[in-house]
Amino acid sequence: MTQMHQVLPTVQEFVHRNHMHYIHGQWVPSVSGQMMDDENPSTREVLTRVARGREEDVHQAVQAARKAFQHQDWQQLNPNAKGVLLWRLADLMDQHLVELAQLDSLDMGMPLRQAQYGTVPMAIDHMRYMAGWATKIEGSTIPVSAGKFFNYTMRQPVGVVGAIIPWNFPLLMAVWKLGPALASGCTIVLKPAEQSPLSVLRLAELITEAKFPPGVINIVTGYGPEAGAALVAHPDVNKVAFTGSTEVGKSIMHKAAERMARVSLELGGKSPNIICADANLKRAISGSMLGIFMNQGEVCSAGSRVYVAKEIYNQALEQMSEYARRLKVGQPLDPRTQMGPVVSAEQYQRVLDYIESARQEGASVVAGGDQMPEAGPGFYIQPTIFSNVQDNMTIAREEIFGPVVAVMPFDDIEEVVVRANTSPYGLAAGVWTENVRTAHYLAHRLDAGTVWVNAYHVYDAAAPWGGFKESGFGREMGHYALELYTEVKDVWINLQ
Hints:
Number of strands: 23
Largest sheet: 7 strands, mixed
């Protein structure tokens, strides 16, 4: 198998196994016995085989989670002990950081240096942050006027969580769900994306090593319409946490509504990135190109609409084009690589179709715009920049989830606010300006869950993450995430 000589022996050994479901602390084959191929996006070769979960496998996992949630070993485990488990898992992740980074790089095409120095350390930080919250989930006392009563609230775990995550940041997305759910006292059934399950399955081995009680964490691999749909529909799942496309999110919301299951959705985006005339142009160009080309543009918050003040538009466009041409595209495991392949044949064709539709609608390619066979046999696409884009064009309206950006001029601040907000999405936005008044004005006016000023793609475990409008609801990080996994109970004590 090509590329495998570049990875650690432990990673080679792990990849070459056939992978099962992780249920009640055990590795369990699918009831059907069926497996599915996991493809390496940089070679188009089958990397390994993974169990294909269906309704019966999901049922086993949910039963295990329900039993664990009700079991004395988990219910009576004190908050400090839960925090210790999470911290122990974070330490194990830290010890195996390079393995986990290499698995994400192999499995979905993420450049190794991004995984090793960015997303995996971020996942570890998030687990440690949530470990600290296990002892700090509190209620409050309320001075009521209804009589002589002592009134107080408590937060209790919502129950069994069904979590479904996307393929673009496999380990990080798993931890975003696991950390707050476990800190809150829930149990969980996690379905990783079929395109990139390996780092999550390796995490399951570390979960066993950390000595979590069996059934507290369960992992079922499979396709979305089979395993994912079964998890959403299962009557013993109290809360569904989903990160993925808006289209699938709407379907999940509809299905969960039939049984009033709690739902949180972190969905798509078409994020605007605004470069004002007074911006530090060098920083703005570098940050905006990171905003779209990081992780091959396979980021829900990718800054795929760049609005540039008309007076600096031509200069900015020229510098962006030069940046795209210099970008090192290649094998994800090469430490020099800045952009790898997109994740799959389906995504590859989707991105190429968007590029072709942009041409057909009259946009102009100023950089890239084609396949990139010279980078290797995988799903490589050139970093692509379009000019002459109108706001009603497909590439300016729809989420592409690839290395494609539309760069458009604007005349004044009020105009660009209207154009930026004319989107069904509202996940993130970027602003580049040296004027503090402009910075705050735009931050207040833009319809986005996160606004970065003179930066892009900055994240922290303590800062909330989520969107407005069709980008979903609920916040994934910070103390806000705990609200997704707890119920508030109000208690009245008669003092008369």
